[in-house]
């Protein structure tokens, strides 16, 4: 049995096998490979694409996805060990994971960090607890990384650029009214460096560098894969000769949990928005974003409506890569004592 | 590819073909005509019948419906063009429509008017924006019209009265504690006049006349179809010799967005409730309502529990007509580049 | 047509037939016995296990479950007769039941008591109203009893102990920060006495005795089945020689609707928590709980993590017994005029 918590646990050839399977599945989308199987989708945060693509993907494979929203239509959940549970949570992850492992063939979880204490959140404790207690595969639908988005991004890069090795990939920070999760930024670095790309991280200030774990992983992976990893504050330098521009907003980690101070730091940098002038510096680059995207804040209407914008293709690829992932994880599974 | 935004875009023979298909489907409810297909149901407002009937209808045809509630379990959506999106909405309808068009074979939307500015709401801007950006059929699940309810109503009229031409159809306004959407009233006029009925609109005051677009359409359609369209404030005159009584409450458009003033205007008219005495004036008319209905406010218990009340039949017909609609729109569709 | 509102309406052999069918179904979980059938799951209160197990169970049988949450994503519902509905509720249970009976082959309802007036709530008025107006089977997903949990509990007892007759079953009250529903406690007494067990009810104070209806039923059923029914405040006496310990917290009925006073009464009794020392008094008893459970409040980590804890097995059995129940009720049904 294998979990899909982060691509750091998977090799490039293993990930490429999922991407190849996704390509097959989009040519033959409806089949019965997972007939009678079930997956629980547990959302601690909102979702449109993730929920739709998992639910539809399961259906197209003959399986069924159950959507759970603990704390809203279900009970609040405790994730720490050994707690005297006389607070808000009615239930411990040990029992939730135990029961869902009996009902379902896999459990997928979305659990954003709590934006209070990064030293706690950076351990990814919620999904780690789930994976520890579950006896079926656990899939990460975004915590402090977003590995399903990574697969969709790399499928999209290969669809549009062919082999990714040596192609210039720019991850640019953009302004946003609130400090957002770093997950997609962490993930973009992980997947682009693992696949041998020439990666540039563009941030307006060193405070927007990502957690050292992901910076180190990007350096190490670039070295192993024959790629490169550079950091810059220079917009022109970053965009010049780029093959693929990827935008994301995130909050500065040194100000984690102090949104007012972070807002002041962020205020001068609205001009990091992706626009036509910046895209004109590239080598006819494709542009993408994980969505949702605020138009004319993260990217201009001109960019979003251009032929080189492949954000909708990337979103579509979520469906195909997640079907490949479910097929790999659920068919790989031994028959348990439970429901199948 | 064709949308189903309003019955004004469809001819009487086209609508009758849907009603005939609905009749076939209720005799053979479970089949595989839409095997592997998917439809997104996007609700900006609550629903019981609409959601159940679409979700069950899709299932009975071998398809799957995904229920999305943007702003609750999903992201808030911006519907205007060219906006700098630094307010509440995290996402533009262009991307939502684009992505869902890749995941699904159709998108259905419920978006009630906002009760602030009728000159804006009467353009039906939200579903028009969705239809513009979607590359799959869009179905109206109630905006400022409710065309699925129209199909269910006309199916019910034909089930109970046979040919509708020349039969007297009364649409009566009723009191309600809040000013409600005019959609079902607009729709009742549209469908009854299109099918050649002798239509009477009963309102307590001219302030309760419907938007001129729908008043004009009713006059024009009645003329084209050989029907009639009359307006009255006289309860006795309206009910006398009626074949079909249809009740609905709605807010007075001149007071749109000013609910306190509208409440004062409305206050003297609680006696417009449908009761046994009024029904006794008819030619053994059937009574119906789109539901939900407040008993002893819009119609008395006596009326709701009478054999002549066919509101439950009409609700059941929602299932059959929507299955006919999905079958027509989804099978009509060319194979896209996306998921099927 | 038959409802499943309380096990008091079903004989022991009838219930045993459901338990035997559940055993068959867990060996062959995926089949097409209910192909094309639909069930509405109406939740007035949150749920994780109940929703997942019904939804997955329906899917594994070829059916589809629609999840409705009236008052949240659907309309508020009125359950009383003859009311002038000018308050909050937009719709009467008569219409909800009527419509859902046309769309679905069964309706399941969760409706916790309102914690205001026990003389009202003890009549179980909400599900009784639904059953009265529905023309398809109604299934109780927890009101003032929880008969699906009873089936899962008795399936688990038989899985671990074999024949239940004469085995010592202890239902122990436990502390909890809030006064909870008595449903599972009522149900545990009903099912254990019906199946001939030697039943002990352990409460810290006579105020925690259950409603006289259930106390009387337990006495009467124990007599009929050759079992026993005893009440004690003595922890040691209760646990000694027990074969099965079942824990639940509930509010004291004499303080129903007065949570502050009840909290004072409850305060001295945190030591009723199930722990290793208490379990050591038993005859190697199994321990279970219906979940959700607050660890180190209702039962210690030691108990929950022990091999003798079968709470996860009981939760799994929810799936199997509910599939048996749906199969029995839906296949038993005559073809209606409606959707199938």
Automatic annotation (TrEMBL), chains A, B, C:
Its EC number is 2.1.3.9. One of its GO terms (molecular function) is amino acid binding. Signal peptide: none annotated. This is N-acetylornithine carbamoyltransferase. Catalyzes the transfer of the carbamoyl group from carbamoyl phosphate to the delta-amino group of N(2)-acetyl-L-ornithine to produce N(2)-acetyl-L-citrulline. This is a step in an alternative arginine biosynthesis pathway. It catalyses: N(2)-acetyl-L-ornithine + carbamoyl phosphate = N(2)-acetyl-L-citrulline + phosphate + H(+). It comes from the Bacteria. The lineage of its organism: Bacteria, Pseudomonadati, Pseudomonadota, Gammaproteobacteria, Chromatiales. N(2)-acetyl-L-ornithine binds at residues 142, 248, 291. The record marks 90 as: Key residue in conferring substrate specificity for N-acetyl-L-ornithine versus N-succinyl-L-ornithine. Keywords: Amino-acid biosynthesis, Arginine biosynthesis, Cytoplasm, Transferase. It holds the Pfam family OTCace_N. The keyword Protease does not apply. GO terms for cellular component: cytoplasm.
């Amino acid at each position: 049995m294998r979990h899909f918590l982060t691509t750091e646990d998977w090799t490039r050839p293993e990930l490429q096998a999922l991407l190849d399977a996704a390509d097959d599945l989009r040519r033959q989308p409806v089949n019965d490979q997972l007939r009678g199987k079930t997956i629980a989708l547990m959302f601690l945060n909102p979702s449109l694409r993730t929920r739709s693509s998992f639910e539809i993907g399961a259906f197209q494979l003959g399986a069924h996805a159950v959507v759970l929203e603990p704390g809203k239509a279900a009970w609040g959940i405790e994730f720490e060990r050994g707690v005297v549970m006389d607070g808000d949570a009615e239930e411990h992850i040990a029992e939730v994971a135990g029961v869902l492992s009996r009902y379902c063939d896999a459990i997928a979880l979305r659990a954003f960090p709590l934006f209070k204490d990064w030293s706690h959140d950076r351990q990814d404790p919620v999904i780690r607890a789930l994976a520890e207690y579950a006896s079926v595969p656990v899939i990460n639908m975004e915590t402090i990384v977003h590995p399903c988005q990574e697969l969709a991004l790399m499928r999209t890069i290969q669809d549009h650029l062919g082999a990714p090795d040596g192609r210039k990939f720019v991850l640019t920070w953009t302004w946003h009214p609130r400090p957002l999760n770093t997950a997609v930024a962490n993930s973009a670095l992980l997947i682009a460096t693992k696949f041998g790309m020439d990666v540039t991280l563009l941030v307006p200030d060193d405070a927007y560098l990502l957690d050292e774990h992901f910076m180190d992983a990007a350096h190490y992976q670039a070295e192993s894969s024959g790629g490169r990893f550079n950091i810059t504050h220079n917009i022109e330098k970053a965009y010049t000769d780029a093959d693929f521009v990827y935008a994301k907003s995130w909050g500065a980690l040194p100000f984690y949990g102090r949104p007012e101070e972070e807002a002041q730091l962020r205020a001068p940098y609205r001009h990091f928005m992706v626009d036509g002038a910046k895209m004109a510096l590239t080598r006819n680059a494709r542009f993408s974003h994980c969505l949702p995207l605020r138009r004319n804040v993260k990217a201009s209407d001109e960019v979003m409506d251009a032929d080189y914008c492949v954000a909708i293709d990337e979103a579509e690829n979520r469906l195909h890569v997640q079907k490949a992932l479910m097929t790999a994880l659920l068919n790989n599974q031994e028959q348990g004592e439970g429901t199948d």
